[in-house]
Design a protein that fits this description.
4 domains; alpha+beta; 26 strands; Immunoglobulin-like; 9 helices; flat; Alpha-Beta Plaits; 4-stranded antiparallel beta sheet; 4-stranded mixed beta sheet; 537 residues
């Protein structure tokens, strides 16, 4: 059997040829990211600064305050000085900045005493910036409290463009005056009191010499300085004009003396004897020459009555002459400030005990003491109220007080003296109360005590505050209360918290419990510790 196989052949159409080479997309452009500018950063804070009223201030900004990745340290950045509101300081500000040398400079007056807050800005080339705030405290200058002389000078500015800031011309003049007297600027005796810079008015500067004591008056030294500054005709001296050129020219200059430097007025005794001598010589020669020659023997009884009235009038005028000197001179001479008190500085919570010098005042009749007790007055010379934190103890002749947080700041007081003729004199006294350091690590332990007192009545009697601090010091065997730092008085009845500044801050392993503090205050005899005796006990 034949098997026939049929193979079916299928024909397939050949497909169209397609290229196997892949089609690539256009090459991508790799974007290189633009460098991101890094703003400057603050590496170190600027330490608190201090200046003295009336003296030039200059402080270089440290080079490690700012840092910029692209530019470098502070010296490679542009600095700007801003006020507390973060605005550029005004040209009238007493503090300015040398942008090229990066130095803070200026000069403060007595009205600027206190703490001032500023902001220092650092800018790089791309506009990035960093800010850091700092404070500068203007301290008192005791030579400005009661100077006995003042030099005043009016000036004309010769520069066409002038000075960019107000203090610039003032510092320029003070530098020229120091050079005139051969003094280095760092130890110059020129002490600025005030200056005037108003539109349409001549520039004026007022200063005193710090080498002359405020209590005594050295007229010889003042006259020596005056001879250098003022010519014989009263105009500014040629050497002064030369020293001020080419920026300035002095128009007028004068020296003013306070009462303590003025010579005493001449006694008015010369006016009293002028009239009596004229009358007695006219009367005696008219009558005696005519009568004695005519009847010498018969007129003896008549001559004695005529001669006694002529002689006594000549003697009495000579006796009353000392009376006007004693009666008139004291009336026109009030007491003078002889030894001005230095400004007082105290911190909130610290007890202030400041003795008043015995020779604060001097009187021509009463000497170094006042006829009536001293009086402490406010800036307007009104007596301080009984609830004011600062009081005067007339018997001990000292100032006492315990300032609290609300008393921080600067205040002007007056100590008043009245002599035996009822004439008054006032000595200014500046008191600055600094805010306490808010750092919790400033003290290692806090103590608490509760007083059996009504809170409002206690707070109205600052003398009780002083008495309490002294009693706490004596409780721990301290003769002085320097180590007691009061934190606060709180109601309920009266809760007082305080620190002991004599304790080391690094020796206690933990903060003591207020109950432990009450226990420590309880042991000497305050009962159960919940209530302590009245401070008046």
């Amino acid at each position: 059997m034949v098997v026939t196989s049929t193979v079916a052949q299928t024909s397939t159409a050949s497909p169209e040829l397609v290229s196997t080479t892949p089609t690539l997309p256009p090459p991508l452009e790799t974007a290189v990211p633009a460098p991101v500018n890094a703003s400057p950063v603050v590496r170190n804070r600027l330490s608190p600064l201090s200046a003295i009223a009336g003296k030039p201030f200059l402080e270089e900004v440290p080079d490690d305050i700012f840092y910029d990745q692209e530019s470098g340290d502070t010296r490679e950045l542009q600095l700007e000085l801003l006020n507390a509101e973060r605005e550029l300081v005004s040209p009238h500000s007493w503090l300015q900045l040398f942008e090229t040398s990066q130095k803070l400079y200026g000069i403060a007056l007595r009205k600027d005493v206190g703490q001032h807050n500023y902001v220092l800005a650092a800018l790089d080339d791309d506009g990035g910036h960093a800010l850091t705030d700092f404070s500068i405290t203007v301290n008192h200058n005791q030579m400005l409290v009661a100077p006995n002389h003042h030099f005043r000078m009016d000036l004309k500015l010769l520069l066409a463009r002038g000075f960019p800031n107000k203090v610039d011309w003032v510092l320029n003049v003070m530098s020229k005056l120091s050079a005139l007297f051969g003094e280095p600027e760092a130890s110059s005796s020129v002490l600025l009191e005030d200056y005037v810079d108003r539109e349409g008015e001549p520039l004026r500067i007022v200063w005193t010499n710090s080498t002359l004591s405020a209590g005594t008056c050295d007229l010889t030294e003042i006259e020596r300085i005056e001879a250098v500054l003022i010519d014989k005709d009263g105009s500014p001296s040629p050497q002064l004009q030369k020293a001020l050129s080419p920026e300035m020219r002095a128009k007028r200059i004068s020296v003013e003396l306070e009462d303590s430097c003025l010579p005493p007025p001449p006694p008015p005794v010369t006016l009293a004897p002028t009239e009596p001598p004229t009358e007695p010589p006219t009367e005696p020669p008219t009558e005696p020459p005519t009568e004695p020659p005519t009847e010498p023997p018969t007129e003896p009884p008549t001559e004695p009555p005529t001669e006694p009235p002529t002689e006594p009038p000549t003697e009495p005028p000579t006796e009353p002459t000392p009376e006007p000197t004693e009666a008139v001179v004291p009336r026109v001479e009030p007491p003078i400030v002889h030894n001005a008190m230095k400004p007082l500085n105290v911190t909130v919570g610290d007890l202030l005990l400041a003795p008043v010098p015995d020779d604060l005042f001097m009187d021509a009749v009463d000497g170094m003491s006042c006829y009536t007790p001293l009086v402490l007055g406010l800036a307007n010379r009104r007596p301080v109220p009984a609830n004011h934190w600062l009081q005067l103890e007339p018997d001990a002749q000292r100032l006492v007080g315990l300032p609290l947080d609300k008393n921080a700041g600067f205040d002007l007081y007056h100590l008043g003296c009245t002599n035996s003729r009822g004439l008054e004199a006032y000595a200014p006294l500046e008191v600055a109360v600094a805010a306490r350091d808010a750092s919790a690590s400033a003290y290692s332990a806090e103590f608490e005590l509760t007083l059996d007192q009504r809170y409002r009545a206690f707070m109205r009697q600052p003398r009780l505050h002083v008495l309490l601090v002294n009693k706490i010091a004596r409780l721990f065997g301290d003769a002085r209360a320097d180590a007691v730092v009061v934190d606060a008085f709180r109601p309920g009845s009266v809760v007082v918290t305080w620190f002991n500044s004599s304790l080391p801050t690094d020796s206690l392993p933990r903060r003591r419990n207020p109950a432990d503090a009450r226990g420590a205050a309880r042991r000497p005899g305050t009962g159960n510790g919940a209530r302590a005796a009245s401070p008046g006990a």
